[in-house]
Structures
1.
Amino acid sequence: MKITKNTIVTMHYAVSNSDDTLIDSSYDHEPLAMIQGTGYMIKGLETALEGHSKGDKFEVEVAADDAYGQRHDSFVQTMPKDAFVGIDDLQVGSQLRATTDEGEQTVIVVNMTDDEVTVDGNHPLAGMDLKFEVEILAVRTATEEELAHGHVHAAGGCGHSHEHKDGHEHKDGHEHNHEHAEGGCCGGEHKHEKAKDDAGCCGGENKGGCGCSH
């Protein structure tokens, strides 16, 4: 069976930057399973998967525009520290959920002083061209239930077949499409709360591995 829209793809991957520095790999933990054609993967990788079959191994280079997009300076904002009252263990690297008048956004603390906190709403891999090594382990047709729920069900019941934790770093190949409020990642009315534990680059609220969208 070939990979087409609404097939379940189980795969291993390794992703590196343009300098061949390894960013993340599934080879030392569980493989990734996802529904093809649902926007779960970054655009460039999902496109490259089309037509491949079980047993295929290939490499693909994905430009930033087809990965996590370009960086935007307007997504970096500095705010008074008292805007973060009630957040425990606030530190550089903390991943937060910012509630704005445009909805919830994910931001990362990149700098702190005694009075101010700087957060960045860009994906950590934004602006990077990426290289993927991929091995297709299995391909099957998604069930009606999986398509209705929008994710792969683990054997024996409903659940995600892939869980990958690596702190607050977004380091695998999944696309994060953040809708930012006008004026930056925290434009308009906003409050902040500590994000749930990551599951790779799509941790917590962002399910999956390196290349998913939410």
Note: Helices lie at 43-49, 144-149.
2.
Amino acid sequence: MFNPFNWYWRADDGRIFASARQQIVDETDPDFIAFAEVQAPTTWPRDNDGTQTDAALQGVLDPYFIFVTLEAYAANERWKLETGGIASTAGVPLKTDDRGKTMIIGAGLLATNDPNFTTTWVGADGELYPLTNDQLKQQVGDLQHHIDACFVAYTDIVTQVRQKKITSHQQIDERFKAVKG
């Protein structure tokens, strides 16, 4: 029975992906041998050009949060950090999902265009926070600094992955944890 969390995919070029470990293994891997004795691995999926790519397999595994490459894992972790919320310099816990970011930017634009604009913000904690015009504009800055820090860390991680200096999910987690503080 298909279990995406403990399955193998084989590409025509010999690559074998083990979902349980989220890594490439070879034909001599003991777990792969045991699997192959009772179940044939699935053929590695192809992209629109007919090529068996990591991205094509990632598309199959995305719903399960299984990552074919460290770069794909890093991209997901960056997104989770970016959308996981922040505390503004005004002390407001902010939602930073796409809707939250849109509202923060919208309020900041209005505050920039109307020096008398103030409002009461509903924080991520459900509490009410009366904010001045300057605080509303600062929330936009806080948000953008947060997003930038996420992408700077991601860029650094991907560079280190490509240089083989980062070789595990744990190392990626530690780097993003440093950004979160």
Note: The chain has two domains: 8-68, 80-180.
